């Protein structure tokens, strides 16, 4: 299961990057890192929740269509059956979905899967901007698509 | 990815080299938005360009912080010549050409960030969160630029930038 906590980064980027480049890899951080399939399964579950929120009418057909493509690709790669869950507003669900892809990136060993996760993360960020445009809100309220350091993180 | 930016990313031979290119592209993007705001863009477009220029400066600062942590010095910063090299024709362009050039630049940066995602060493994977957050900011810029151009805002389910 993917952690959805928004920990780190800009303020802590220096210490983080120094530790990383000094050789503290992901294998040192936990005894048994999740497999790529486990990471993808977590992303699939979240993507399906997002799709449900879009189906509830808040996001528009274009976003729902792209979300269905995300679910199909992740399902095929993870070998997982489809779930159907719902909950949350479209923007909130999308925001958490974007965070999930960002958090999953370092856990993916396969470079192709990392690129896929980045492509979907970019798509989710675009959905957020489009939803805000539709709602008459500022579409890009910050430089990092909402991914910021939490107080005390 | 536009050819000049693709060449820069492809030529990078190390994690720090990739980050240096990413920093350079973000600095050029900040110059591009500033040039657009000072030139052909007016009204809401101009305000947008000024806001996005500030975002690009924040993106550049994020990459510079990462390089600093690696004890990699950043001795040079992008200037007008670099803008002309990576975004030729921006100066003197009209509104639509300017917005189109900015969109192409954002797309190229996204593609470059995803190349970092593919090529970065395993010891540096956690740093991809920062790269992805910068990439996502660029993807959101792309939506607004498409909207300003009157284009469809969402074009790909898997945004590759190219």
Provide a descriptive summary of the structure in words:
- The complex is a heterodimer of chains A (153) and B (162).
- With 153 residues, chain A is mainly alpha-helical.
- Helices cover 61% and strands 0% of the residues of chain A.
- Chain A is built from six helices and no strands.
- Chain A is globular and about 45 Å long.
- The two termini of chain A are 20 Å apart.
- By secondary structure, chain B is an all-alpha fold.
- In chain B, α3 packs antiparallel against α6.
- The longest helix of chain B is centred in the middle third of the chain and has 27 residues.
- In chain B, 52% of the residues are buried.
- The mean pLDDT of chain B is 95.
- Classes of the chains: A mainly alpha (153), B mainly alpha (162).
- At the A-B interface, α1, α4, α5 and α6 of A face α3, α5 and α6 of B.
Radius of gyration of chain B: 15 Å
Task: Extract low-pLDDT stretches of chain A.
Answer: 1-30, 81-87, 149-153
The largest sheet of chain B is: none
Measured as a percent range, the helix fraction of chain B is over 70%
Strand content of chain A: under 5%
Distance between the termini of chain A: 20 Å
* Succession of helices and strands of chain B: HHHHHH
User: Any idea what the radius of gyration of chain A is?
Assistant: 16 Å
Number of helices of chain A: 6
Give the topology.
The complex is a heterodimer of chains A (153) and B (162).
Chain A (H helix, E strand, L loop, with lengths): L12 H9 L4 H4 L6 H23 L2 H18 L11 H15 L6 H24 L19
Helix pairs in contact in A: 3-4, 3-5, 5-6
Chain B lengths: L2 H9 L3 H24 L4 H27 L10 H7 L8 H25 L8 H22 L13
